[in-house]
Amino acid sequence: MLRPIRAAWSALGILAFCTLTPVPTRADMLYVGNYNGNTVSAISDAGVVSTYANSGAVPTGLAFDVNGNLFAGNSFAGTITEIAPGGAGTSIFASGLNRPEGLTFDASGNLYVANYGSGVVNQITPAGVVTTYATLSSGIVGLVFDSSGNLFVSGGNGSNAIFEVTPGGMVSTFASGGGLANPFGLAFDSFGNLYAANEGGNSISKITLGGIVSTFASGLNAPYDVSIDATNNVFVTNFNSGTISKISPGGTVSAFASGLNGPADFAQFSPRAVPEPASVLMLGTGALGLLGYYRRRSRGNRA
User: Fold this and answer.
1) What is the pTM assigned to this prediction?
2) Is the pLDDT of residue 191 over 60?
3) Does the N-terminal or the C-terminal CB of the chain have fewer CB atoms within 10 Å?
4) Would 2 be classed as within a structural domain?
5) 272: closest CA among 299, 290, 295, 245?
6) What's the pLDDT tens digit per position in 64-87?
7) Residue at 54 is within a domain
8) Domain tally for the chain?
9) What distances in angstroms separate CA 296 from CA 68, 148, 229, one per listed residue?
């Protein structure tokens, strides 16, 4: 993923940056937190798995900022770790949280955190200032924004529901029933449909803009998160089997990657980030939440 380029740079400087600086994070790859291994894996579009970083703790919730820094929730430590681009070095970005799980960024660069233990969604500014954005019930996990700035939240004390939080902080139930079973990770496709990983039902639910729930795929193995590429293929982390499944837009399930260690959350990409290379094949969870972010301009991980 390219870092922002300042207008003051000379053309020569830009050329040198583009040709000589390695790209440490790419939106055409999947990044997955290994709950049992305290690591983050990178997975190519061919399904090749490599180690991207050591998160220093159990990674629960992952999100890249616009500069390629990776933020990881550390559920049992109550902290957020910041990992430098390329996985080079870690530091504590925020602390005092209550089992932070899902992470996502808004277009202004603020980080949002689902606190599984308290049901509170925190907003954390780029300077690290923590405030309460919304309060739900305990057990919340997944977070994703739509193009109108509404935040969608999964879970909540066994509610088997998806909640919607307006930019003003008002909470309502967006969808429930219809096969939702302990939903964890969330992602939008390019048509504005929301997908939820049902950890309790070994299935993936598809939810329309109107909140109608249907089963998109089944037969998975403790699915924790979903990520959707530019052609609406759905990728799923199977926690129990250490694998990633790929599901075609028509619902056909196939094996995509294996050898992971308790794969939980996919990393989301910042709404302001520019994918590299231009011919993006896979955008990651937030990136498709983002393709929704731009295509749906008219309407807009883990216990």
Assistant:
1) 0.82
2) yes
3) C
4) no
5) 290
6) 999 999 999 999 999 999 999 988
7) yes
8) 1
9) 25, 9, 16
